[in-house]
Amino acid sequence: MARQRLSSSEIAEIVQALPDWSIDAAGTGLLRTYRFESFASAIGFMTECAIFADKIDHHPEWKNVYKTVEVRLTTHSAHGITELDRDLAKYMEEVARRH
Ligand SMILES: C[C@H](O)[C@H](O)[C@H]1CNC2=NC(N)=NC(=O)C2=N1
């Protein structure tokens, strides 16, 4: 269930609830760029998220350049957005608030 592709209306609900996130052009990934006050904060954010991601066995596509972290969440096995991507996006929002 958690790894099943969400419908377009379910995906629309995610970005309504998480307005800093958007959907990529193909409709298969959730996108967000975080900007932190320091490189240390960006890495602290990534470290916390990485531990959670590994725990739920669901891993982000992301890139760090100095104080920014570009994130794309997708479920590779489903070729699209699933509940796992929504859960990870919510978790990232909580972690980012603390960094
Ligand atoms: C075997 C293991 O459960 C899978 O390879 C997991 C690992 N992490 C994953 N992460 C993401 N984003 N999508 C997946 O399909 C996925 N699959």
Automatic annotation (TrEMBL):
<dbReference type="InterPro" id="IPR036428">
    <property type="entry name" value="PCD_sf"/>
</dbReference>
<dbReference type="Pfam" id="PF01329">
    <property type="entry name" value="Pterin_4a"/>
</dbReference>
<comment type="similarity">
    <text>Belongs to the pterin-4-alpha-carbinolamine dehydratase family.</text>
</comment>
<dbReference type="GO" id="GO:0008124">
    <property type="term" value="F:4-alpha-hydroxytetrahydrobiopterin dehydratase activity"/>
</dbReference>
<keyword id="KW-0456">Lyase</keyword>
<protein>
    <recommendedName>
        <fullName>Putative pterin-4-alpha-carbinolamine dehydratase</fullName>
        <ecNumber>4.2.1.96</ecNumber>
    </recommendedName>
</protein>
<dbReference type="InterPro" id="IPR001533">
    <property type="entry name" value="Pterin_deHydtase"/>
</dbReference>
